[in-house]
Amino acid sequence: MSRFHSMIMLFCLFISSFSYAQTKAPAPFGPVPTENQMRWQEMEYYAFVHFSLNTYTDQSWGYGNEDVKLFNPEKLDCRQWARTCKEAGMKGIIITAKHHCGFCLWPSKYTEYSVKNAPWKNGKGDVVKEMADACKEYGLKLGIYLSPWDRNSTDYGKPEYITYFRNQLTELLTNYGPIFEIWFDGANGGSGYYGGANETRKIDAKTYYDWANTYKLIRKLQPNIVIWNDGGNRADLRWVGTEGGSVGETNWSLLNATGDVPYEMLHYGVENGNAWVPAEVNTSIRPEWFYHPGENSRVKTVPQLMETYYNSIGHNGTLLLNFPIDTKGLIYENDVKAALAFADAVKKAFAVNLAANTKATASNVRGNAKQFAAAMAADSNKNTYWATDDNVTNASLTIDFGKSTKFNRFLVQEYIRLGQRVKTFTVEALVDGNWKEVANATTIGYKRILRFSTVKATKVRFSITDSKACPLISNISIYNAPQILASPSIIRSQSGDINIIPADAESVVYYTMDGTIPTAKSKKYTAPFQTEGKVQVSAIAYEPASGKSSPMTHEKFDIEKKNWKIVGTEDEKASAILDGNPATAWHQSKDKKLPVDLIIDLGNEENLSGFRYLPEQTLWNPGIITDYQFYVSEDNIEWKLVSQGEFSNIRNNPLWQTKNFERVKARYIKLSALKNTEHNDNIGYAEIDVITN
Ligand code: FUL
Hints:
This protein is an alpha+beta fold.
């Protein structure tokens, strides 16, 4: 090489390193995640396991007086739990070391109410230890759920309990290796056994636990942990305001460090919040958290779980999916099947990234530098990103497939280490030479997945239409997910009409009423039809073009409600309670004070052995009953009390509540509401039903 050439080369090198140095990486904008939060966010999907004395009493919440002798799983196998979670693609397991009843799954030194006094392994067992070992074997991380509320402890409500609580925390965070997450349930205080006191103890959840010092202790013992706590006691992660399995489409990973956090803030985050508090979506694979044999056929289906996937991981959240451990000490086979089928469906949906190895160009590239080029969003490297110049808050990136390509999913990720920025964006497809918008959305965050009808196009244009600061996009992936048919829903109106509603218009519904499994050869549903008395209906949605069927929906209906009347109200809207439609509700008049009664005339004398209550399903006007009494009468004058108690966990998980009682003949029923979730007098009902035999 001549001297001249080498001089030119040196000059070029100098210029390029100069321009490289000129293109500074963007500065962080607003709050950013800690390393612990980042590690947690990247786990995306992990399990809860609910196991305690409740497993043996068919309860949602134990009172604290249940006998430890009940705990004797014949086949307890934490390796089966870990294997299932691993095969289901999960990255960790959070175990209910202690639920509200106070029973400890580990032999705590500080209480007698634990496995050490249970017949299981002659009191020598330790479920938390077995769980920790199984997690290690399967390469999963371990998390701990420790209920702050303890309905067994004599000291609950007194300062001594805080020492007890911290002692237990210290045991759990010292003896079982690294813990990735600690979970403190928001249910705090209320009635309980409390060492025999059998009373109601109220605490102020914000001050009683002295969380600031408890958090210090936790971080000292487990520096890499993330802390989950309910909204009022701000920690590292936030609840999303529902246990139904979704977080808002708009989902900022931000809250304010102090102040109240109403439902909207939990669900959507706070756009200009001053603290990084990302969302974790917790939901169960069955309606309830603990094992109830009656729910063995109510395990969520693949379409339902996929819906949850898109509404959690696809909405900038993580997914914490619960397995109730059964009485034997295993994850029940139906739940295992569902989890594996769900994992398979996720794998198939995201099998081929159509954006990989395509040409990406952008309307603006930061300093025209290679390191921030559009290609950085399509390079499958989470540490590189496409960035624009500082003053740019709208910009677009175009992916050129090079050929006509079918797709129906768009996945996008921000480089959140420098803050969450994007406020709104659109996705367009170039179809026959014209740009057609296929989706638009608000926030992105760590990960956002958009679903739309399958489109065939040569190019995709992703346009950020508003952003808090210059956008930083670390990944764009495009997929063509196979269609999955959702199960139809079945309702029966007050007059006895069965309505079967398919989830999408293109499918045909087939049904049976004799308990057999419907197929495309069964009776075709065309319009609502009349039924009388007790009936059962099973239905599937079927798509003729592909020959695919949905999972089956099965509903059992008790006696018809044709002659039922709500007594003591002229309000016609009260019929919402009897219309069979969970989406409609009725509320008692505002001036009624608790206890508030609802009386129903069944029209005939019936053999009653239970009742069911479904609270209002919308999030805005709940009026949910927590404490009740249920009476029956033959004449609407003399009443007999046949059931009373609480609807446990109904606030967070507003499911059908079923209460059984000794068989009794009656024509009138009265549900007396004693307390509600809001501590006021608002009382509402979506549905009321009876169980007869
Ligand atoms: C709720 C609890 O009360 C439930 O029993 C369950 O543990 C769930 C994860 O959190 O608030």
